[in-house]
Amino acid sequence: MSDHFVQFLADESATVAFGNQLASLVAQGVVIYLYGDLGAGKTTLTRGIVQGFGHQGKVKSPTYTLVEPYELPEVNIYHFDLYRLADPEELEFMGIRDYFDDSAVCILEWPSKGEGVIPPADLDITLKYIGEAREVTVAARTQRGIDIVLKLQGNA
Ligand code: ADP
Ligand code: MG
Fold first, then answer.
1. How far, in Å, is the centroid of ligand 1 from the Cα of 127?
2. Which of 48, 61, 130, 154 is the residue whose CA sits 20 to 30 A from 12?
3. 52 within 8 A of 20, measured Cβ to Cβ
4. Ligand 1 atom 17: the closest Cα is on which residue?
5. How many CB atoms lie within 10 A of CB 8?
6. What are the extents of the domains in the chain?
7. Superfamily of 4-153 according to CATH
8. 137 and 3 in contact (C-beta within 8 Å)?
9. Helical ranges in 60-156 per DSSP H
10. How far is the C-alpha of 153 from the C-alpha of 156, rounded, in Å?
11. Which residue owns the Cα nearest ligand 1 atom 11?
């Protein structure tokens, strides 16, 4: 078995459904980095995860606010989009360390912009265009990540 998992996502609802599935496997303290071009589906996948934890409302892209918090019954989820971040130090000024406590789930779009300031990922998730559809790759970076990937492989 490899330490990554790949799945074809035929349409938007498949991306959301995969996010729902991830929510059932992700526990407090997990850090997820999301990679992929603009429009690849990073925010859509986040919506699936956040709604999978019971959030009923919208999930909007925090492109301008940098972070959108979701305080849910089981867990606090912080969704970051660092696309517009000019300097990782800005994250220090906004008190980013408070977000990365062990009881939260953190999901970060454009993590490369926060290099040196954000904590390491348990999972690197990459979304790729396949024509009009998408493909998702989930790669484990920690033991906690490996446990999640093994469960994805078991469910496939
Ligand atoms: P990103 O956050 O990566 O910039 P978004 O999630 O904001 O991307 O936008 C992704 C776009 O692609 C949305 O219009 C969504 O409806 C669409 N989409 C998401 N998943 C799929 C899929 N599996 N196949 C085709 N289109 C998808
Ligand atoms: Mg996005």
1. 9
2. 154
3. yes
4. 12
5. 10
6. 4-153
7. P-loop containing nucleotide triphosphate hydrolases (3.40.50.300)
8. no
9. 89-93, 143-155
10. 5
11. 39
pLDDT at 84: 92
Ligand nearest to the CA of 41: 1
The dihedral built from the CA positions of residue 134, 139, 145 and 151, taken in this order, carries a sign that is positive
Q: Is the CB of 75 under 6 A from ligand 1?
A: no
Most informative mutation of 12, 43, 61, 130 for ligand 1 (most atoms within 8 A of CB):
12
Q: Are 72 and 51 in contact (CB under 8 A)?
A: no
Q: Pick from 103, 100, 81, 76: which is nearest to 36 by CA?
A: 81
Mutation test residue for ligand 1: of 22, 33, 37, 44, the one with most atoms within 8 Å of CB: 44
How high is the mean pLDDT in each 10-residue block of the chain (156 residues)?
89 98 96 98 98 95 90 94 92 85 93 93 98 98 96 86
Helix locations, the chain, DSSP H: 12-25, 42-52, 89-93, 143-155
pLDDT at 156: 64
